[in-house]
Amino acid sequence: MSDPRVLYLLAALGVFAVVFLVAWYRLGRPQSEDDKGPPTATHIGLGFVINFFDTLGIGSFAPTTAMYRLLKLVPDERIPGTMNIGHTLPTIAQAFVFISVVQVEFKTLVLLILASILGAWLGAGVVAGWPRRTIQLGMGMALIVAAVLFTLTNLGIVAGGGDALTLEGSKLLLGIGGNFLLGALMTLGIGLYGPSLIMISVLGMNPKAAFPIMMGSCAFLMVVAGIRFLRAGAYRQRAALGLAIGGVPAALIAALLVKSLPLTTVRWLVTVVVLYTAVTMLRSAMKKA
C-alpha cells in the first residue's frame, strides 16, 4: 500500500459495509412462506464454495445462477437481487484484501469504481421491477456471455495486457465508460470479473491490476444495488443470508491462504454448467411466450 490515500478508500469501503448491514437489518425480511427461517446447510455451503472460487477470479454470478436453477432454490425473477445482496459482504472482504496488497494508481482505481457505482444505481432500479420472463431472457443471454468469456480465457484468446498500473487520456475515458456499463449489467446477473479483466488487459494494464479494480468496483456497487433490491423486495432472504454467511470466510481463506489451483479445469466445468443453465432458462422464457 504505497499510496496513503488508499486508506481513505478502505475507510469508505468500511462505511459502505456498515451502511449495507444496517439496511439489510432494517429492510430484510422473508419474501414468502418458504423463505422463513435460517439458511440451510445447502445455502451456506453454496456461499462458501462459490465465493472461494470467486476470490480466485472465477466469478460468482454465473455459478450461483446455475446452482439456484439446478437445485430450485430461488425463483428466476429473484435471482439477480438475491445474488447482489448475498454476495455483497464476501465481495467487500475480497476488496479489502486486494486493494491493500495490489498496487494500482489511485485516480484510475477511484474513477473506475465511481463509474461502476453509478451504473449499478441506474441498473438496479430498472431490473428490480422487471417481470419473470424478461429476467429469464436477460439472464439466459448473460449466462451465454459468461460461458463465452470462460472459453476465451481458457483458450488464451484474452491473454495479454501490459505492465501499466494507470490509465490516461482516451484509455481512461474508455475504462470509465466500460466500468459504467459493467456496473449496470451486474444488476442483471452478468458478472463483472471476466469482462473487467478483459477490458483492463486490452487497455494495456497489468492483468493483476484487475483484481483491486474489479473487486473494489463490485464491493461498492453491490452495496448500492443491494439496497435497491432490498427496498423492492426482489430477492430471497434465506438464500442471500446463506451466501453471506458462507462467503465471507471463504473469501478470506482464498485471498490469504491459497496460492495456486488448477483454475482452467474449474472454468471448463463452470462453462458446461453455465451453458446448460442458459439453455434451460431461455427455454422457460420461450414457453411463456
Structure summary, number of beta strands: 0
CA-to-CA gap between the ends?
Answer: 53 Å
The structure class reads mainly alpha
Beta-strand residue percentage: under 5%
Average residue pLDDT: 83
Helix content: over 70%
Biggest sheet layout:
none
Radius of gyration: 18 Å
Shape: globular
Helical stretch count?
12
Query: Number of domains in the coordinates?
Result: 1
**Which sequence of SSEs, written as H and E, runs from N to C?**
HHHHHHHHHHHH
Low-confidence stretches: none
Jot down its keywords.
289 residues; 74% helix; 12 helices; mainly alpha
Task: Write up this protein.
By secondary structure, the protein is an all-alpha fold. The protein has one domain (6-288). 74% of the residues lie in helices and 0% in strands. The chain has helices at residues 6-27, 41-55, 61-71, 79-86, 88-101, 106-127, 132-154, 169-186, 193-202, 210-232, 237-257, 263-288. Helix 5 runs antiparallel to helix 10. It starts with 5 loop residues before the first helix and ends with a helix.
Task: Give the SSE layout.
Elements: H1 6-27, H2 41-55, H3 61-71, H4 79-86, H5 88-101, H6 106-127, H7 132-154, H8 169-186, H9 193-202, H10 210-232, H11 237-257, H12 263-288
Helix pairs in contact: 1-5, 1-10, 2-11, 3-12, 4-10, 4-11, 5-10, 5-11, 6-8, 6-10, 7-12, 8-9, 9-10
Give a concise summary.
The chain is mostly helical and 289 residues long. It has one domain (6-288).
